[in-house]
Amino acid sequence: MLLGRTLHLPRQRLLRVSLSSLHVQAMLFILAPILLLVATTLFAFNTDPDYWWHVRTGQYIYDTGTLPRLDIYSYTSSGQPWVTHEWLTELVFYVLTRLGGYRLVAAIFALLGVLTCSVLYLTCRRRGLGEIGASLCMLWGFVMASASLNVRPQAITTLFLALCTLVITCYLQGQTGPLYLLPPLFALWVNLHGGYVIGLVLIALTVVGQIVDTWQKRALQPLRPLLSAAILSVGATLLNPHGLTALTYPFSYVSADNASMLYIVEWQSPNFHEPFFLVFAASLLLVMLLGLARRPLAATDTLVAMVFTFLALRSGRHISLYAVVMMPLIAARLQAELPAFGRTLQQWHSKRLLAVIWPLTMIAILVVIFKSGGMAHLQVGLEPGERGYPSGAVRYLRDNNLKGNLFNEYGWGGYLIYRLYPDWRVFIDGRADVYGDEFMNKYMDVAWLHPRWRNVLDEYKVNLVLVKAASPLAVVLSNDRDWQEIYSGEVEQLFKRKAE
Q1: Under 8 Å between Cβ of 105 and 93
Q2: Which one is predicted more confidently, 212 or 31?
Q3: Which domain, by its residues, includes 34?
Q4: Most buried one in 41, 236, 251, 452, CB count within 10 A?
Q5: Does 181 map to a domain?
Q6: Antiparallel, parallel or unpaired: β 462-468 and 405-408
Q7: In a domain, 410, yes or no
Q8: CB–CB of 49/415 below 8 Å?
Q9: pLDDT tier at 264 (50, 70, 90 boundaries)?
Q10: For residue range 451-461, what is the model confidence (pLDDT) as tens digits?
Q11: Total structural domains within the chain
Q12: Parallel, antiparallel or unpaired: strands 492-497 and 483-488
């Protein structure tokens, strides 16, 4: 189905992974404008729903010097086990916020996005593409990965997976030294985000692919350094405060009937009716077209392509992982079948590009700003943007000193934790793993007005409900004699149960 065998370039043509390998003209004409677009886009994202509770958790760790092991934010799952697998990222969030506010956090993650794209560019260059071809693949990969390259821990996994892909590409082309960068990378990764497991999957696929190629007498690289790096990388993941639990935790999302897979959009399969996923669909089409080419497939590339394509088709959240792993494989196939993509910048008459690329980039940046709502909505302030969050209802709750158990939207739980904890506890927030499938089903019973929705509110003694304006639950409560609307904002409605 998929892409070409590993490209073993002559030694004199291999690109070295250093700044000296980047041609000055490539940086000026191609990389600089595209990376500027990447950085600007990161500032245009609305605040991620989970960012809020990540910062509050970072504050808890900073203030107490300990990790929360049990749920501290909700009244519905209070005391339930909580694996804070992103604890180091959360601490960084809070420290950066103390130092420079949200704009510093956004700037750091914009830099991470730029680094991710730069690593992807380098990997495509190592696969044989010229500056322009590699830049196009980098831009394509960024568009696919952009949903995960905002201010959220998953952006770190995307960057680290891109680094793993580059290291493995170096190994496949005869450089074993970079393999020993993997263990320290995983020691850091396991404390930043649970997505480190996908890096281990990539290494395992490479090991299996190399064993197959060795058996078929096609492997050109020694297997021992790869096995050593793989074993050390697995061992490095034990360097975390949760021990073996950190190794098993990510697999809680594997089950097909997992509540996250059922209810959370980004965990569901891509909806190709949405324009965003058409870029991903186009890459699948290209993969199939290139997969029909003449040359046989190397076992490693075949395994990697099959697994990461499956993951992306199973969950839209994994498209960013697909992008940083698959674009270099697509690059290798493009270079093999369409040699024009391997042309260097000089061969493309680079001096003529400046008059075209920079104006197009400026137009693209203006489009990004316009689509985000204008300059006022760029994330350059001390406080995170509250667009789409119930800021008015939060002020109302505080000003009127209301008490009781509050039912809230899933996507607003993190914001309420940030603004109201410890005075208030939430009904639910983005930590679906803490609440479990049974409780998630109860939440959806209320949100979707299933027959037992009133029973759930009674079970948890809910006397306040904060939901999106004109949502099905809001419409029903507006006409329910047992409830009264006490606040209505731009995006929210707040209801209070009438006294019996």
Answers
A1: yes
A2: 212
A3: 11-371
A4: 41
A5: yes
A6: parallel
A7: yes
A8: yes
A9: confident
A10: 999 999 999 99
A11: 2
A12: antiparallel
Residue 1 counted as domain residue:
no
Residues with Cβ within 8 Å of residue 166, at least 6 apart in sequence: 17, 119, 122, 123, 126, 178
Between CA 186 and CA 194 the distance in angstroms is 11
Going from the C-alpha of 361 to that of each of 44, 107, 162, 249, 358, the distances in angstroms are 15, 20, 24, 42, 5
Would 376 be classed as within a structural domain? no
**Do 107 and 203 belong to one domain?**
yes
pLDDT digits (tens, 9 = 90+) for 306-321: 999 999 999 999 999 9
Q: Are residues 355 and 213 in the same domain?
A: yes
Q: Do 323 and 409 belong together in one domain?
A: no
Domain end among 371, 405, 437: 371
H helices present in 173-195, as ranges = 182-192
Query: Average pLDDT, stretch 480-487?
Result: 96
431 and 290 in a common domain: no
Collapsed DSSP state (helix, strand, coil) of residue 497:
strand
HEC secondary structure over 68-81 = CCECCCECCCCCCE
Radius of gyration of the chain (CA): 25
**Which tokens in the block code for residue 338?**
């369409």
